[in-house]
Amino acid sequence: MTFMMVGYCVASSDLLTFDMDISSWSSSEMRVLQSLHIDQLPPAPVDRSNAYERIPATADLGKRLFFDARFSANQKISCASCHSPQQQFQDGLALGQGIGKGKRRTMSIVESGRSPWQFWDGRKDSLWAQALGPMEDANEHGGNRLAFANLIRQHYQSDYEKLFGSMPDLKDLPGNASPNGTAEERDTWAKLSEASRQSVSGIFANMGKAIAAYERTLHHAPSRLDNYIAGTLHRDPTAGQILSSSEKRGLRLFIGKGECISCHGGALMTDQHFHNTGVVSRDVKNPDQGRSSAISTVVNDQFNCLGKFSDAGPRDCQELEFIANDDPHMVGAFKTPSLRNVALRPPYMHAGQISTLRDVIHHYADAPSALVGHNERKRIAFSEQEIDDLVSFLGTLSSAGIEN
């Protein structure tokens, strides 16, 4: 005996398997499953500090800037060099590689506009401020602020002025200057008038706002897990076949015994917060302090929500205004990354210290002591089969990226 539904021929034995599968999820577990579905993502929050982020022409300009390698010291590094569309907008390296080698792993920027804090340590409080950091970093783009402003004037002036108004005249200024560049560039910057420094920094800030507008168009497509959840919630008799038995066991471990969902909850599978999980630093003599060392950086950043280049009002910046600067839990803590497409993004952790997902699960199960701060995790006894199942489940989160 068979049943026909939405074009599929399903054997009665398969229906029985599915009925047993769906009945094994409790009502509370079904609510948890629903919370993980990609459709549960609310509209992205509006960034009041970037008044241009939702203008299509801003995103179009930002996309061209994102892929333009002229915005680097050697004319070879673009944002896309480390945030490659072919690799889920990251680079697949343990440590980011631009002009030089960085100290941490490149994070994916897909859906990153949903987080109040950017980078592994949260040293930037907006997507546009995040876009500016690598530009002047010696190991990333290695460029300087005045050179970038001149490039905008040479190659993008018309499009820039349609969005941000007339550009200031830069013809009497030197070619290179920056408060964060080489000693010579810093010295030249210090000799500029305050009005010139503000004009150049304003162009620089608007570059970041344009790039952020483009980055906010990057989203995740539904994964096999999403298809399974949707089918299960709608009691589709074919849904039980979307995931293997191992993958479904892994899903149960993920939301149950493994307690993974405590940090990796929600449709993006991240709480957007910072946690110390005892990951060993690459430099054990000088361990990375993580979030705790970045708080003063973001508070004093001239491009933060409360800064003069922000479009926000003071009441729009509560995350920054009420930031906790003495929380001991932030010592050695790093941002929880989204698990979407995680199987496609090895190696893992903030500096690529762990090569495989299997080793990541072993690490969390072992819960080693942290070099700095305190590991929040508690030891969990997983069998090798359970670890296999968790790895299998994480593979169900892979999907294509989409651009709106």
UniProtKB/TrEMBL annotation:
Cofactor, free-text remark: Binds 2 heme groups.
Free-text description of this protein's post-translational modifications in UniProt: Binds 2 heme groups per subunit.
GO terms for cellular component: periplasmic space
Species name: Undibacterium parvum
Positions with a binding annotation for heme c 1: 79, 82-83
Protein name per Swiss-Prot or TrEMBL: C-type cytochrome
Cofactor(s) the protein needs: heme
Residue sites binding heme c 2 per the record: 260, 263-264
Domain Cytochrome c: 57-168, 245-398
Location(s), subcellular: Periplasm
Lineage: Bacteria, Pseudomonadati, Pseudomonadota, Betaproteobacteria, Burkholderiales
One GO MF term: metal ion binding
Keywords linked to the UniProt accession: Heme, Iron, Metal-binding, Oxidoreductase, Periplasm, Signal
